[in-house]
Every structure is written in structure tokens, then in C-alpha cells.
Amino acid sequence: MGEWVHSSVNSPLPPNAFLAGRDSDGSDMYVGRIVYEGEIVPAKLIPRRREAYMTWEGVEYLIQRFEVLVGQDYDWIASGDGLVPHNAISTGRDSRGQPIYVGRAVYKDTVTVGKVQPLRGCLLLGYNGDEIDIQAYEVLVST
């Protein structure tokens, strides 16, 4: 399930935060999660710019408060089409009770964190204000 620490864009990054990717300007990107509309969804955190984002129904939103994934006992496993390994890290469940998992993909000039919803059959990630569907991605797993 992972260990999560409460934080905000105005707080220092917790020690041992899990580095997950890079944004287009080379900024480090970390894994977060947020409760939104009754779901607990992954978020991408970019501390250097004091920014954090999540996606919802096709739109990428800037957020202020979130939880940060900490620890280093994680790895990325290649996957696609909504499939997730048995030891995948879940942020929680959607409003229908279905699990939501942490994923990432290379998109344009980034390695971006997103959410894998198996019933949707893809990874959903935010880019320039939009939510993008990706068929081939990596899933975060506990090691």
C-alpha cells in the first residue's frame, strides 16, 4: 500500500520521498495522492516549482494539499491495457470501489506520474491541462 505523509506545495518535501520521474524542464517529479470527489487518486508533485497536479474527468488540476509517497522499497514494472501486477501500489479506490494504482509513462518530453484504473484499460496522466490516455506504461510495485 505504501507509506504516505501529509504535505502541501508550500511545505518542504518529506525525507525519503519517492522520486518517480522528470518534467519537461528537468524538474524532479514525485508521487502523491489526494482525496477528490470521494476517490483517492494519484498526483504528480513538482517541489522545485511548488506545483502539484491531479486529473479528473479529462482535465488536469493544480492542487495545494496532498500526501507524498515515502520510502525506497518500490520499483516500476512495464505493463499496459489496464493490467497491474499483484504487488502494485494503490492510492485507494474510486467511487465504485475499484482500486486505483500509481503508474507512469514517457509522454512528449516528460516521465510523468498518473493513475491506472484497470476498468478503463489505460494509464491516465496530466499534460498541459489535459488528461491523456496511455496504453503502454509502468506500474509502481512494492519490492
Our measurement of the CA-to-CA distance between the termini, rounded to an integer number of angstroms, reads 11 Å
Q: Spans of 5+ residues with little confidence (pLDDT < 50)?
A: none
Query: Which sheet architecture does the biggest sheet show?
Result: 7 strands, antiparallel
Which H/E pattern describes the elements?
A: EEEEEEEEEEEEEE
Count up the domains.
1
Share in β-strands: over 45%
Structure summary, number of beta strands: 14
Can you tell me the overall shape? globular
**Structure class:** mainly beta
> C-alpha Rg, in Å?
13 Å
Number of helices: 0
Supply database-style keywords.
7-stranded antiparallel sheet, 14 strands, 0% helix
Quickly describe the structure.
With 143 residues, this protein is mostly beta strands.
What does this structure look like?
The chain is mostly beta strands and 143 residues long. 0% of the residues lie in helices and 62% in strands. The chain has one domain. The chain has strands spanning 3-8, 19-22, 28-36, 39-46, 51-56, 59-62, 65-70, 74-80, 90-93, 99-107, 110-117, 122-127, 130-134, 136-142. Strands 1, 2, 3, 4, 5, 6 and 7 form a 7-stranded antiparallel β-sheet that branches. Strands 8, 9, 10, 11, 12, 13 and 14 form a 7-stranded antiparallel β-sheet that branches. The termini are close together. The model has no long low-confidence stretch (mean pLDDT 95).
